[in-house]
Write a sequence for this structure.
């Protein structure tokens, strides 16, 4: 083995296991996905109207679209973070994105905005919470649109960045559950201001994590040309 081969061996990073990423994202999505499944059963099983479900029973189409769209987007989208599935022109990443993710993401965001605008406020929510839902729903739609624009221009980095932001907004429901449920178990349900603050922080936390992921990708790409020159 010559010096160049030794240098290349030392500088080539060992492949990291990729399964923890989709597994963690699926676990994060599990609570809202199960809650959505329970809501579907309620809508199709002739549930008795209550203060918590009357708005869904009166107008079920938006919530059905939201549940299906959010479930597909969060579960299928988790596998888009596996590098091996992103390779290839006609591979999983491209097919799943065009057929499943983009329509599902738009369904989830637009139906969520419709519910925030036209459904009566549920217990614990108010005008500020509805405005937050509209804001982050619009941000998700904008991220998806910018992701589509980027890939149409063959800007793979921009596409990945915008889709990561859209996914972070979508799976914030899981983060919100993780922040709200322990407090509710220990101290009882949060009041409206506290609930609004916690829900908003969950969106911001997810977006902060997304931005860190995006920065790491950019740093890795910037190091690759320098590494190739060193090896050569």
């Amino acid at each position: 083995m010559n010096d160049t081969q030794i240098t290349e061996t030392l500088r080539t990073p060992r492949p990291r296991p990729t399964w923890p990423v989709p597994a963690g994202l699926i676990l994060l999505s599990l609570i809202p996905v199960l809650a959505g499944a329970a809501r579907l059963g309620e809508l199709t099983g002739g549930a008795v109207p209550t203060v918590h479900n009357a708005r869904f029973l009166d107008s079920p189409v938006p919530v059905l679209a939201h549940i299906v769209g959010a479930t597909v987007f969060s579960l299928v989208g988790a596998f888009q973070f596996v590098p091996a599935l992103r390779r290839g022109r006609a591979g999983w990443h491209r097919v799943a994105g065009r057929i499943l993710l983009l329509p599902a993401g738009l369904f989830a965001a637009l139906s969520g905005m419709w519910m925030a605008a036209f459904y009566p406020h549920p217990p614990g929510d108010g005008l500020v919470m509805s405005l937050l839902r509209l804001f982050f729903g619009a941000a998700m739609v904008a991220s998806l649109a910018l992701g589509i624009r980027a890939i149409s221009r063959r800007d793979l980095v921009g596409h990945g960045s915008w889709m990561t932001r859209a996914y972070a907004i979508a799976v914030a429901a899981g983060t919100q559950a993780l922040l709200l449920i322990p407090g509710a178990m220990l101290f009882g349900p949060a009041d409206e201001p506290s609930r609004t603050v916690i829900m908003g922080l969950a969106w911001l936390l997810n977006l902060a994590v997304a931005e860190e992921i995006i920065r790491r990708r950019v740093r890795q790409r910037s190091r690759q040309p320098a590494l190739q020159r060193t090896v050569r």
